[in-house]
């Protein structure tokens, strides 16, 4: 009887062995689909994320189809390798790709007896094969077919790669959830540092995530992650990589993350959109010329941009510190009175437009922006619209006027919840238009000391339109320099009426503005629409001697192994790019320095301490709907704008809503700690224009009338005339001394 049982057992085992042999043979020869060849394994290439760096080599973000950054074995800390081997494949350095004992355990327990607690039994090689090519569905045989294929590939990997190469390839392919692939990307995501700097306990967290990257995600499930980390540390002690004392010490360390998701919380996400557009155009030309197929998403390029991260961070801090205060003030204004009535009318109008009036009070969980951080709350549709309408938006752009290189690009208050880029928003540019008008006057020979009438003005040809000054003053005459510095409206309209509109329109287009310039006197006060982007280009021409520059975002593009495929030399513009004369740019810059020193921009120096030579102009659109400020040195042009999405939502007065109070602080706060880096002297006035600004800002009447008044006024003695003459001379000398000191 025993012989019969033994006979049947031998026959059964033989048949089973034959069946297994046939099954494995069928897999090997492709019955269940081909197995990748050695040549294909050699040619395998990970898709890698493109890294985007600032000009000072700081990581700004990535472009990717798969968020992965490949690293070399030399970059991997020894304790990371130890943690991986101890936890995932203790006999890694002993086997030839497949651990026979583990494989038999899986065969008999997992497959035959359906005992899932026995583990996967896969070596690092087998896991790598799975990461490289994934798994396919083969019905009830899927597990056995896929495991067998991975075993064959594991052996093949051993033939062509060293143990170190396999570990490197594995760690570059392994997924960590959150659309993160590879150990370097995971290190950057969860600890905000390169893998070389990872500590033992941090390495244990990352290795622990390999078992189940969501369940052991330290951000989502910190308790699970800590328990799993301690398991990995126990494995390190078990296989004598660390002592029991070190293990106990590390297990007692609290879980500490420095989570950095650049895709949603990066310092320059609005800017990265522009970078990607520029890179794609560059690669399109490069691929066409070189018969290649490089992409910004898959080929692990290294892009160095023009952006200065220090200046960018200063701007981000300025946004938070200033706009958080102004946002509170605006919301407080709309809590009651006529402002609340206006807001309720706008909410009703928006509900009707969206056809949601009958659902206005329905509550839903919504992601909301605040300066304390984005949060989720259950609020009604009505309240959601109210918050959206009263939200202050802002943008700030800084360029190097000599080359067009973008140094700072803050396109909004929060890229995640407010993705529209305010740099391109078309709004009325208010008094920031005036320098363009005055430049046109200078081009036609009107000098800074030419006087402009400030008498009350009614223009009958345009429905009796009557411009007024900010302070409602009238009478007398302002020098052109003073009228610009003090942003006087009536003299500015008189200048507009005395120069050919065709000349102004041509200059508007030459400076790169795309909207039509309305042919009516109100345009002199800035009723034309433009954007921060266009205004920055125009002011760059004022700063660089009269040339139009094209904003640029990319300095260089390299392949992952360091080959340069594109380099921007950042050349200065040529004479073909000239849009105004050098003398006009010098005179206008002197006038706009006067606007900072004596006019509407004085708080830039008085309050924010920007005591470098700087020119600028504030702008406040009608009824305080938008606040603007544009400032520049020969090294930097910076333009900011602040306003709600609807022009109907605005501050009630200039105390909060003027350009000097709402937009200027963004520039002032940004420059406070870096002003010396962008300090440079403006070109001196040409010899023939040395006294071009040495005149009285204001005369009671025209020089002609003043002459006759002095001639016939008997009380006007020669001594008094000489005293007034001496006073005017002293003022001129004082202004000269101030300009030299700056």
Task: Specify the CATH homologous superfamily of the largest domain.
Answer: DD-peptidase/beta-lactamase superfamily
Task: Give me the number of helical elements.
Answer: 27
Structural class by helix and strand composition: alpha+beta
Briefly note the CATH topology name of the largest domain.
Beta-lactamase
What is the CA-CA span between the terminal residues?
113 Å
Mean pLDDT: 86
Low-confidence stretches: 706-725
Strand content: 5-15%
Region (Disordered): 719-742
Domain Penicillin-binding protein transpeptidase: 397-635
Transmembrane segments: 9-31
Organism: Aureibaculum flavum
What does this structure look like?
This protein has 742 residues and is α+β, with helices and mostly antiparallel strands. It has three domains: 200 residues, Orthogonal Bundle (Penicillin binding protein transpeptidase fold), CATH 1.10.3810.10; 297 residues, Beta-lactamase (3-Layer(aba) Sandwich); 34 residues. It is 45% helix and 11% strand. The protein has a five-stranded mixed sheet, with helices on one face. A hairpin with a 6-residue loop joins strand 6 and strand 7. The longest helix has 27 residues. About 3% of the residues have low confidence.
Question: What is the fold's blueprint, element by element?
Answer:
Blueprint: H1 2-28, H2 38-43, E1 50-53, E2 59-63, E3 67-68, H3 78-88, H4 100-112, H5 124-133, H6 142-160, H7 163-173, E4 180-181, H8 183-191, H9 200-208, H10 222-238, H11 244-251, H12 262-265, H13 269-290, E5 302-305, H14 309-333, H15 337-354, E6 363-368, E7 375-380, H16 381-389, E8 392-399, E9 406-410, E10 427-428, H17 434-443, E11 451-453, E12 477-479, H18 480-485, H19 489-497, H20 501-510, E13 529-530, H21 532-543, E14 554-558, E15 564-567, H22 582-597, H23 603-606, E16 615-620, E17 627-633, E18 636-644, H24 654-657, H25 659-671, E19 698-699, H26 703-712, H27 718-741
Parallel strand pairs: 1-5, 3-4
Antiparallel strand pairs: 1-2, 5-14, 6-7, 8-9, 8-18, 10-13, 11-12, 12-19, 14-15, 16-17, 17-18
């Amino acid at each position: 009887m025993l012989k019969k049982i033994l006979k049947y057992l031998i026959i059964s085992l033989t048949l089973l062995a034959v069946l297994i042999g046939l099954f494995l043979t069928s897999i090997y020869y492709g019955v269940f689909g081909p197995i990748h060849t050695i040549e294909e394994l050699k040619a395998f290439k990970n898709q890698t994320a493109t890294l985007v760096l600032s000009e000072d080599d700081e990581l700004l973000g990535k472009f990717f189809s798969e968020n992965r950054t490949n690293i070399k074995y030399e970059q991997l800390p020894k304790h990371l390798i130890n943690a991986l081997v101890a936890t995932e494949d203790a006999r890694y350095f002993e086997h030839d790709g497949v651990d026979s004992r583990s494989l038999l355990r899986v065969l008999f327990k997992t497959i035959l007896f359906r005992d899932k607690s026995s583990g996967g039994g896969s070596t690092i090689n087998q896991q790598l094969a799975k990461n490289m090519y994934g798994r396919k569905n083969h019905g009830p045989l899927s597990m056995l077919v896929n495991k067998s294929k991975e075993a064959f590939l594991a052996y093949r990997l051993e033939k062509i790669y060293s143990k170190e190469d396999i570990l490197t390839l594995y760690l570059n392919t392994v997924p960590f959830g959150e659309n993160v692939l590879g150990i370097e990307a995971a290190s950057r995501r969860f600890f905000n540092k390169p893998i070389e700097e990872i500590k033992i306990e941090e390495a244990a967290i990352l290795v622990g995530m390999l078992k189940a990257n969501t369940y052991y995600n330290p951000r989502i499930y910190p308790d699970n992650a800590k328990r799993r980390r301690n398991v990995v540390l126990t494995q390190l002690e078990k296989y004598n990589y660390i002592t029991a004392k070190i293990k106990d010490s590390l297990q007692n360390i609290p879980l500490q993350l420095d989570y950095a998701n650049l895709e949603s919380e990066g310092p320059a996400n609005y800017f990265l959109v522009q970078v990607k557009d520029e890179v794609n155009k560059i690669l399109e030309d490069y691929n066409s010329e070189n018969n290649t197929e490089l992409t910004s998403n898959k080929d692990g390029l290294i892009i160095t941009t023009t952006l200065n991260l220090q200046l960018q961070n200063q701007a981000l801090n300025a946004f938070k510190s200033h706009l958080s205060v102004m946002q509170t003030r605006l919301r407080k204004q709309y809590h009651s009175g006529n402002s609340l009535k206006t807001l309720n009318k706008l909410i009703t109008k928006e509900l009707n437009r969206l056809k949601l009036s009958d659902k206005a009070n329905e509550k839903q969980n919504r992601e909301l922006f605040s300066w304390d951080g984005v949060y989720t709350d259950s609020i009604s549709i009505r309240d959601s619209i109210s918050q959206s309408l009263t939200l202050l938006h802002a943008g700030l752009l800084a360029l190097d006027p000599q080359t067009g290189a973008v140094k700072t690009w803050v396109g909004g208050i929060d890229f995640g919840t407010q993705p529209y880029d305010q740099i391109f928003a078309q709004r009325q540019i208010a008094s920031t238009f005036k320098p363009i008008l005055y430049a046109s006057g200078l081009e036609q020979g009107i000098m800074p000391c030419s006087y402009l009438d400030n008498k009350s003005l009614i223009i009958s040809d345009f429905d009796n339109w009557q411009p007024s000054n900010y302070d409602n003053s009238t009478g007398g005459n302002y020098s052109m320099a003073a009228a610009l510095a003090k942003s006087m409206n009536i003299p500015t309209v008189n200048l507009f009426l005395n120069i050919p509109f065709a000349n102004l329109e041509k200059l508007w287009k030459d400076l790169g503005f795309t909207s039509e310039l309305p042919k009516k006197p109100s345009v002199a006060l800035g009723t034309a629409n433009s954007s921060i982007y266009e205004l920055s280009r125009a002011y760059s021409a004022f700063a660089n001697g009269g040339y139009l520059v094209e904003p640029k975002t990319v300095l260089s593009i390299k392949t992952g192994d360091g080959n340069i495929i594109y380099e921007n030399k950042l050349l200065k513009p040529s004479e073909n790019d000239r849009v105004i004369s050098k003398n006009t740019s010098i005179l206008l810059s002197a006038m706009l320095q006067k606007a900072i020193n004596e006019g509407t921009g004085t708080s830039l120096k008085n309050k924010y301490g920007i005591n470098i030579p700087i020119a600028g102009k504030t702008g406040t659109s009608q009824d305080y709907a938008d606040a603007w400020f544009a400032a520049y040195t020969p090294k930097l042009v910076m333009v900011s704008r602040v306003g709600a999405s609807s022009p109907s939502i605005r501050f009630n007065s200039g105390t909060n809503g003027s350009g000097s109070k709402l937009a200027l602080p963004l520039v002032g706060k940004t420059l406070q700690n870096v002003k010396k880096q962008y300090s440079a002297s403006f070109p001196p006035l040409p010899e023939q224009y040395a006294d071009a600004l040495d005149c009285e800002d204001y005369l009671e009447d025209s020089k002609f009338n003043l002459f006759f008044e002095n001639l016939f006024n008997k009380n006007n003695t020669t001594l008094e005339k000489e005293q007034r003459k001496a006073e005017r001379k002293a003022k001129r000398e004082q202004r000269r001394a101030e300009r030299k000191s700056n």
